[in-house]
Specification:
421 residues, Rossmann fold, D-amino Acid Aminotransferase, Chain A, domain 1, 30% helix
């Protein structure tokens, strides 16, 4: 269960005695006092209830996550930690996840529908050691016990979460790398914006009322969809023609500049490097996405000609190209990652492992963040053998291998509880 809201204050403590004093001082009703009592019970008996007390005008919500950390730790007690299996769905970034896990000495397991994808035969270093076949992605929920018997740790990626569904993934009874609570903040664009703005991140202006659109805006639907359905509108009329009102959407100011997707890794268990209040931050790589048909459409004519021909750009991601940033921007790039991680530690206990800030670099060298992906992103597939940045830490270091390293270090130092949920 998570107790949270839409506005947070750093000054509000999170431990029961002070919280209840704060509740009493603010004349909250009996309901909230009872909630504080429940929090005290969980705290007193070390039941590891996840919660976040924040200041608001009574705008609270309660969200239940079925799988709890104590349950996960009970599962881990039954594991043979010398024979961990790294598993993920055969899609997205699975090739580098399996390759990286194998390089660090782990067995690998691919989860797939119907039958194993034939293309894995073409890449023997990234072919998983075994497969689990499911009839549907929802059927993964029924394979939890089988996965646990194989000492499995799940590595989530964007397709895994999208196919399984956020609620199912949160309830998946298999130890998983990272903090699942981040899903609540990442998948809802309003909460994502609260998180990033709370970290002092510059974001595109949000348009609350589409009727006031008077220039280019980007309309995005909630959840990870690889850009599918996103569109640009310049007027309310265009917006109405293109929007799917059956889906929850966000309207953002369209920022002109160069798109950079910055690939970070946050480790709560390492202590050397770019240190934060807890753990270290790493910059592994960066990329730019190739989008269909936006990246090629203007070969057909000017924007006006395309509109007259009723041809509009779409933003479905089809691939990625490598990038490096000018070195003078690296302090700002690290600062952005640092602020986002520190805010996540305050909000929900931290975002663990790989994450990506999706940004625009303007001609005034300002960096605006328009989205965050709180797990490994497909743009890291460019760097299975390392990147210009990762090579300065370790040769042949991919994001997939870095995840496996974190698990390996946690096992060796008895710190799995800090990186698994």
């Amino acid at each position: 269960m998570i107790l949270n809201n839409s506005f947070r204050s750093r000054e509000v403590p999170r431990k029961y005695p002070v919280v209840c004093n704060w509740v009493r001082n603010h004349n909250f009703d009996l309901l909230w006092f009872k909630i504080c009592v429940l929090l005290y019970i969980y705290e007193k008996f070390n039941l590891n209830l996840k919660y976040n007390i924040v200041h608001s005008s009574l705008n609270f919500s309660l969200v239940t996550i079925m799988i709890t950390k104590p349950q996960v730790f009970e599962f881990l007690k039954q594991y043979d930690l010398k024979n961990i299996t790294i598993a993920t769905v055969c899609s997205h970034s699975s090739l580098q996840i399996f390759d990286g896990a194998r390089k660090e000495g782990f067995r690998t397991l691919g989860i797939c529908i119907g039958k194993p994808p034939k293309f894995y035969e073409a890449f023997p270093k990234a072919k998983p050691d075994e497969y689990i076949i499911v009839d549907s992605y929802e059927d993964i929920m029924n394979k939890a016990e089988e996965l646990r018997k194989k000492n499995t740790i799940i590595i989530p990626h964007g397709s895994f979460v999208a196919y399984l569904g956020t609620k199912n993934f949160a309830d998946l009874k298999v130890p998983t790398f990272g903090n699942r609570v981040v899903l609540e903040w990442e998948s809802d664009r309003d909460k994502e914006r609260e998180w990033l703005l709370g970290a002092g991140i510059h974001m595109p202006e949000k348009i609350e009322d589409p009727r006031v659109i008077n220039g280019p805006v980007m309309v995005k639907y909630h959840g990870a969809k690889g850009g599918k359905g996103f569109f640009v509108a310049k007027t309310y009329k265009e917006f109405n023609e293109l929007v799917d009102r059956t889906q929850k959407f966000t309207i953002q100011e369209f920022i002109t500049g160069t798109r950079y997707y910055l690939h970070y890794f946050y480790s709560p268990i390492r202590s050397e490097g770019y240190t934060l209040s807890k753990g270290v931050l790493e910059l592994l790589s960066m990329d730019r996405r190739v989008e269909s048909n936006a990246d090629e459409i203007f070969r057909l004519g000017s924007p006006r000609e395309l509109i007259e021909a009723d041809i509009r750009p779409t933003y479905v991601v089809t691939g990625n190209v490598p990038l490096v940033a000018r070195e003078s921007l690296l302090p700002l790039i690290f600062s952005l990652g640092e602020r986002v991680v520190e805010e996540s530690l305050d909000l929900f206990g931290g975002m663990i492992g790989a994450f990506c800030l999706e940004t625009v670099f303007t001609d005034s060298l300002e960096i605006k963040v328009f989205e965050i992906s709180a797990r490994i992103v497909a743009g890291t597939n460019l760097y299975i053998s390392g990147s210009p940045y990762a090579d300065l830490m370790q040769e042949n270091l991919s994001t997939g291998r870095r995840i496996a390293q974190e698990i390996k270090i946690a096992v060796q130092t008895n710190q799995l509880d800090k990186i698994i949920s």
